[in-house]
């Protein structure tokens, strides 16, 4: 019992210290409940802005360090030509160019699911988390259908945080490279309206 109490005491000291040492991304907008409330009070006088973003999404499913991994599937998924019922979670790099050594500007984090019986189509629920550059600390939320075998796919941006508060817009995706092992690099063009 004494040993358990010692472990719990050490954890109660160490965890807050560890949390304080994790770097936190900051965006160029005041944060916190009062800052958000003040921001909303000024919103009726704010003019909408349009921001265009261009980046590449590196989806790695193979090798020792995949960034997209299956987390569940239906019993019938292995018999489905469209992988219907497969769920995966991902934390993919977003970069300025298609090259593997391009500058990282953020991460695409979320869940995708194979959601069609008739074609390879994904339901995507992603956050584009910007970790570098002028949007550092801000996010955009994508929720939509991605028919991955089509040349161009269009998905809605349904929200955001930081400089992208109340964002709405469209993300278009085009596969840049799809390797034999399933790894993909996807080009994204995003247009969002925000305040």
In short:
The chain has 195 residues and is of the alpha+beta class.
Features:
195 residues; alpha+beta; 9 strands
Secondary structure topology:
Elements: H1 2-21, H2 33-42, E1 49-59, E2 68-72, E3 87-95, E4 104-114, E5 122-130, E6 139-146, E7 153-161, E8 168-178, E9 184-194
Antiparallel strand pairs: 1-3, 1-9, 2-3, 3-4, 4-5, 5-6, 6-7, 7-8, 8-9
How would you characterize the overall build of this protein?
With 195 residues, this protein is an alpha+beta fold. The protein is built from 2 helices and 9 strands; from the N terminus they run ααβββββββββ. The protein has an 8-stranded antiparallel β-barrel with strand order 1-3-4-5-6-7-8-9. β6 (139-146) and β7 form a beta hairpin. The protein is globular, with a radius of gyration of 20 Å.
List SSEs in N-to-C order.
HHEEEEEEEEE
Overall pLDDT level: 88
The count of strands amounts to 9
Taking strands numbered 1, 2, ... along the chain, how are they ordered across the largest sheet? 1-3-4-5-6-7-8-9
The total of helices stands at 2
User: How would you classify the quaternary structure?
Assistant: single chain
The rounded Rg comes to 20 Å
Alpha-carbon distance between the termini?
56 Å
- Secondary-structure-derived class: alpha+beta
* Helical fraction: 10-25%
Proportion of beta-strand residues: 35-45%
Unreliably modeled segments: 1-25
What is the makeup of the main sheet?
8 strands, antiparallel, barrel
Tell me, briefly, the overall form: globular
């Amino acid at each position: 019992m004494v040993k358990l109490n010692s472990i719990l005491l050490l954890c109660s000291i160490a965890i807050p210290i560890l949390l304080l040492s994790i770097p936190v991304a900051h965006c160029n907008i005041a944060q916190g409940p009062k800052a958000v409330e003040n921001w909303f009070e000024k919103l009726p006088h704010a003019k909408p802005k349009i921001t265009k973003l261009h980046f590449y999404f590196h989806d790695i499913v193979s090798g020792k360090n995949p960034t997209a991994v299956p987390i569940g599937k239906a019993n019938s998924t292995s018999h489905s030509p469209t992988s219907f019922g497969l769920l995966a979670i991902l934390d993919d790099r977003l970069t300025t160019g298609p090259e593997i050594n391009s500058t990282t500007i953020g991460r695409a984090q979320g869940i995708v699911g194979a959601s069609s019986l008739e074609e390879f189509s994904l339901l995507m629920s992603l956050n584009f988390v910007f970790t570098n550059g002028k949007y550092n600390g801000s996010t955009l939320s994508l929720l939509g259908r991605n028919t991955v075998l089509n040349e161009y796919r269009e998905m809605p941006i349904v929200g955001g945080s930081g400089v992208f508060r109340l964002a709405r817009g469209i993300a278009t995706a085009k596969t840049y490279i799809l390797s034999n092992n399933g790894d993909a690099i996807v080009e994204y063009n995003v247009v969002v309206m925000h305040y």
